[in-house]
Design brief:
This protein has 265 residues and is mostly helical. The chain has 13 helices and no strands.
Length: 265
């Protein structure tokens, strides 16, 4: 794998994983127009773990405190149970449809661009709603609310929808405020993307060559660095400004992608 597109794609992954613009959609479109090929689209999935470790590094102290409190604190156990519930729907659906998702949906850039545009319209509409949030702490979400957000995450199995976008919009519509919806999406990303990483590596290990592993490692590091920057500043940004900027970004990128596909193929 050439180094410069690997670094570029890693940065794109880290910068877009936690904002509701679809990191997978951006990676697939960038790879398509750069002529970048990875065996079984494994690179695009495996480097996502770098961004997830960025979240883990930022929330390490908080997560460590929760883990230590599990034996004695019912709130800590409820939070862990809620994350597990939210993780299950996408894990089961993703494993069941893995071949179709990677072999068909990931190979359809027209679909990616269309979902970017449609998702942007949805994000703009939801951001303008006069919602009255009832939940303000992501670690205090009731298990049923967490499970419903997990169901929303299944929509992100379609590339271009956005995992963070689906969970954030779901959280907002279900009564979370803007900050806690984004933070819960961060927490849910860790088991979800770790599971996707492990399953994809298991399914495609035989396709990887030594050069592929080196390229994945470089992309992983780039995604980690960019993801750490985004996580540290995103919550403050959305608390003040909402999600409209990301909705417009999706529409612009998706529209440009559709135009480029029409001209260039």
């Amino acid at each position: 794998m050439p180094i410069w597109p690997v670094v570029l794609l890693g940065l794109i992954e880290g910068l877009t994983e936690f904002i509701p613009v679809s990191s997978t959609g951006h990676l697939l479109l960038a790879g398509h127009f750069l002529g970048f090929k990875s065996p079984g689209k494994t690179f695009e999935v495996l480097i996502q773990l770098g961004a997830i470790l960025a979240v883990f590094s930022v929330y390490l102290r908080k997560l460590f405190t929760i883990v230590l409190a599990l034996p004695d604190d019912p709130r800590a156990r409820r939070f862990a149970f809620g994350i597990g519930l939210a993780f299950l729907p996408a894990a089961v659906t993703g494993a069941t449809l893995h071949g179709f998702i990677k072999g068909v949906l990931f190979e359809t850039p027209w679909l990616v661009c269309t979902m970017l545009v449609l998702g942007g319209i949805v994000l703009l509409a939801v951001d303008r709603l006069k919602l009255e949030p009832k939940h303000h702490d992501a670690t205090e979400f009731p298990p049923l609310l967490a499970f419903k957000i997990g169901l929303c995450q299944c929509l992100a199995l379609v590339p271009g929808v956005s995992r963070s976008g689906a969970t954030i919009v779901g959280g907002l519509l279900l009564g979370a405020d803007k900050r806690s919806a984004a933070e819960f999406s961060f927490f849910l990303a860790m088991p979800t993307m770790a599971g996707a990483f492990t399953y994809d590596l298991y399914k495609n290990w035989s396709l990887l060559q030594p050069d592929d592993v080196a390229g994945i490692a470089v992309g992983f590091l780039a995604a980690f660095g960019a993801g750490a920057v985004v996580v540290r500043f995103l919550l403050q940004f959305v608390s003040r400004h909402g999600y409209a900027l990301f909705g417009w970004w999706r529409i612009v990128v998706g529209g440009m992608g559709l135009g480029a596909l029409a001209v260039l193929g």
